[in-house]
Specification:
- The chain has 175 residues and is of the alpha/beta class.
- It is 30% helix and 20% strand.
- A 7-stranded mixed sheet has the order 3-2-1-4-5-7-6, with helices on both faces.
- Strand 6 and strand 7 form a beta hairpin.
- The longest helix has 10 residues.
- It starts with 8 loop residues before the first helix and ends in an 11-residue tail after the last strand.
- The C terminus is likely disordered.
C-alpha cells in the first residue's frame, strides 16, 4: 500500500504499466553506506526484494530485519534465503521501532515515512542513525523539523529526497 501523499503522475504511470519506479541507484548506495554498518542490526523498512539487505550484509552488518508489505516482493526476498536476515511480510508499525532491537535504519516506504512525525514515532529513533527517502516536499519539510537533513534531492518535481538524521551536511554553494 502506498501512502496517499506519495501519489504522483509518475507513480500512477508506473503502476498502470506494471513498472517498478524503484531502482537502487548510486546515490542510494552512497547514502546507505554512510550508516555505521560494522556489526550493526539494520532495520530495513521498505526492503523491496532484498537488494539493500545484501548491501548491508556485504558491508559488515551482523543482521538485517526486512519489512516489506508487497507480497510479490516479499516472496522474492524470502526465496533468496539470505543469511542473518529476518523477513517480515507486512507493513511497518510503531512496534517495529520501539520493540525491536536495531542499531540503524534505512527507510524507503513510499510515503509512510510521514508517520514518523504524524504520529510522533520519531521519539523511537532518537540517538540512532537513520537514512530515509522522503517522497514529497511537505514530508521533507516536516522531517527537517525533527532533525533530518537533506543529502540529495533525487527528483525536484516530486520532492523525492534522501535524508539522514546523523550527518552534518555542508550545503554551501561552491563557486
Amino acid at each position: 500500500m502506498i501512502h496517499p501523499q506519495y501519489w504522483s503522475l509518475y507513480s500512477i504511470w508506473c503502476k498502470l504499466r506494471g513498472i517498478s519506479p524503484y531502482v537502487l541507484g548510486h546515490y542510494d548506495i552512497d547514502t546507505y553506506l554512510k550508516l555505521p554498518l560494522e556489526n550493526a542490526v539494520v532495520l530495513d523498512v521498505g526492503a523491496y526484494n532484498g537488494d539493500t539487505a545484501e548491501l548491508f550484509l556485504k558491508h559488515g552488518a551482523r543482521r538485517v530485519i526486512c519489512i516489506e508489505p508487497n507480497q510479490k516482493l516479499c516472496l522474492e526476498l524470502e526465496r533468496k534465503r539470505l543469511p542473518n536476515v529476518e523477513v517480515r511480510c507486512r507493513g511497518f508499525n510503531e512496534h517495529d521501532l520501539k520493540d525491536t532491537f536495531w542499531t540503524c535504519m534505512k527507510m524507503d516506504c513510499e510515503g509512510y515515512e510521514a508517520l514518523l512525525y504524524e504520529r510522533g514515532w520519531y521519539k523511537h529513533i532518537q540517538g540512532r542513525p537513520v537514512v530515509l527517502e522522503a517522497h514529497n516536499w511537505h514530508i521533507k519539510e516536516e522531517l527537517e523539523k525533527i532533525g533530518f537533513k537533506t543529502i540529495k534531492v533525487l527528483d525536484p518535481m516530486l520532492g523525492l529526497t534522501l535524508m539522514a538524521n546523523f550527518l552534518t551536511i555542508n550545503n554551501k554553494k561552491r563557486d
